[in-house]
Design brief:
about 120 residues; three-stranded antiparallel β-sheet
Length: about 120
């Protein structure tokens, strides 16, 4: 049985039965979004990733630089930010953001719960 709780987590409940139909055990698994800690656009990790993103289809992601300026915003975020200002073309060198620490706020719009943290971008 799958039940969706509105605390910005998905809870999967499992019930295990023995051979005669009696409940042997129950287990629950909670899924929450897990965020990139390092993004390397010129290497093997070119996008800011959110694990379990598909379980949070109604979301918003806002990314800020160290001065608090918004560099990217998407609603919903689909895991495709290419480390450019406002998600513009990588072919224009003026849209590439520099290496450094960036901050994010990820909102699950179904529950309005927010996750915030930071990641390092290394070029």
């Amino acid at each position: 049985m799958i039940s969706k709780k509105y605390f910005s987590v998905l809870i999967f409940s499992f019930v295990f039965f023995n051979l005669i139909g009696q409940v042997e055990n129950t287990e629950s698994l909670q899924l929450t979004p897990v965020f990139s800690q390092t993004v390397t656009p010129n290497s093997d990790n070119p996008f800011f990733t959110v694990k379990n993103l598909s379980f949070f289809p109604e979301n918003e992601l806002v990314i800020f630089n160290r001065w608090g300026n918004e560099v990217y915003k998407a609603s919903p975020y689909k895991g495709n930010w290419n480390c450019t200002v406002k998600g513009k073309s990588k072919n224009d060198p003026e849209t590439l953001i520099e290496s450094g620490t960036y901050f994010y706020i990820f909102t699950d719009k179904m529950s309005q719960n927010k996750y915030q943290g930071y990641f390092n971008l290394v070029r």
